[in-house]
Amino acid sequence: MEHTHHAHAPRNDYGRLIATILLFCLLAAAGYALQHTISCFLLSWVIAYLLDPILLKIEERGLKRVYGLALLYVILGILTVFFLTIMLPAATISWNSFVRDLPNYIQKIKQASMEWENQLPDRYGSIEIEWLIEKATGNIGAAAEKTGAWAYSFGTRIFFNLFNVVLSPILVFFMLYYKQSVIDTTASWLPERRRELILEIGREVNDSIGGYLRGQVMVSIIVAVLVTVALFALDIPHSIFCGVFAGAASILPFIGVIIAILPALFFAWFKYQTVAILGQTGIAFAVIYFFEGYIIKPIVFKGAMNLNPLVTIIMVMALGETLGFWGILLALPIASAIKITWGHFVNGDFKQH
């Protein structure tokens, strides 16, 4: 009987593997079909992760969770009113100004390319380069139309995603209020002999993900504020837009710095058209990102993530391709969760249980 059991074990393992793969495929298909719903859920989940430590601090002072949530929502309501009355109009004005000036920027690009084209034959005598410039100039009009359409569609998507913003506070409330009940119910479903190990892994993953998300939001806000102030001091157009873009780009590891500086250099060049302003902009970004990389991140993250750079890039690219913004944001937490679980597996913790 014992021999027969071991003979069928591999087949059962293969069956479980196939079932797991099919389950993941089904979840991926469902996620693609329900991407707006999942986007709302992920937004609520991230907000809940950010607010939970504050709620725990309130509970430590003896206030019940429901009252702590009420107090937290009152504070958030005041901050929301401040954002809607002061920050949002300024951001909207900056965005409208960018969309309005976009045709002028495109026209300047075409003019600069034509002037360069007239100078190239005398300087280089290269017919091939001239042909390439003509092709690029001819496509600038189409690129302008696509860029304008993207700008307006981006604004439209933000408008329609206001539904998520309205629904998210409700989901966040229930996520925070029923957090412990969900944990206890999920724990009761786990196999008893491995329950404590899985819960321990869950706590490690929770600390890693929570530390990363909270740290990344803080880093993005600090970078956005510093870039906005620096570009405003240099009198570069659309400083708020460039600051928000730089804050969002800081989510990307390694290449975020390069991407963040491009809009600022673009607007600086087309206003002043001097090498000096490009140098000043580059120095400003270098100082900000030196401050971010060597002071802010070590203090904020405190070892929340310790991943191989190659694995980081691959995860960001793969999940960004499949899930878009949420894939980029959650790539490192997912990689960290896999690393923590794999570490326990390698150490033989699962065999011991």
* Most strands sheet: none
Tell me the Rg in angstroms: 26 Å
Measured distance between first and last alpha carbons: 24 Å
Give a count of the beta strands, DSSP E runs of length 2 or more: 0
Structural class: mainly alpha
Oligomer: single chain
Cα shape: globular
Strand content: under 5%
Q: What is the helix tally?
A: 13
- Determine the mean pLDDT: 75
Query: From N to C, what is the helix and strand string?
Result: HHHHHHHHHHHHH
Helix content: over 70%
Structurally, the number of domains stands at 2
Low-confidence stretches: 1-11
Can you offer a commentary on this structure?
The protein is mostly helical and 353 residues long. It folds into two domains: 139 residues, no CATH class; 149 residues, no CATH class. It is 89% helix and 0% strand. The protein contains 13 helices and no strands. The protein starts with a helix and ends with a helix.
Summarize the entry for a quick read.
By secondary structure, the chain is an all-alpha fold. 89% of the residues lie in helices and 0% in strands.
Features:
353 residues; mainly alpha; 2 domains; 89% helix; 0% strand; globular; disordered N terminus
Topology, element by element:
Blueprint: H1 2-33, H2 35-60, H3 65-123, H4 127-160, H5 162-177, H6 179-189, H7 195-233, H8 239-249, H9 256-272, H10 275-301, H11 309-323, H12 325-346, H13 349-352
